[in-house]
Please model this.
Amino acid sequence: MTDSESKAALGWRARVLIAIGLAVIVLPVLYVAAVMIGLRAHSKYDCRLQLRNIGVRLREHAAIHDGQFPAKWSELEWDDMGGIENTTWPLIFCCPTVGHEPGNWDQVDLWSDYRLIPGRTTNDPPSTVLAIEPLSNHETGANVLFVEGSSAWWPQSKVLRQKQAPTDAK
Model:
């Protein structure tokens, strides 16, 4: 091997080592960035989990209040929240895809991203809608919370039919 071939081989090896070194440094940074972007790119499923969490709180309220769900969010009390810190539990009333922070709790009925249907009780049929989010949260549909505590994704057409249907007000 001549001197020039030896230098070329060393130069090639050095470039490979530099590329590997950069990859070792850059790839983890890119991975972390992708994870962070993924955490911010919430989906309708994150919102469904929020509603399910709210459902637990509503059932705790109903257990204390003779099976009556609250008529509006502001009727919920700190004790109904199952030990969640006062400063964090209002976050569950913000749809993760809408991207705003909770407002003043005294005005939760104005800023909550979910609509509570008043007059519901634990004696209603399990599939009775207890809360629903507006179509503006996701546009193609909405998450719905049922009296028995489960939640589901409804496409836009089903949400619109629900709004046109008569209410089951007692």
About this structure: The beta strands are 115-116, 129-132, 141-146, 151-155. The radius of gyration is 26 Å. Confidence is low (pLDDT under 50) at residues 35-41, 165-170. The chain is about 40% helix and 10% strand.
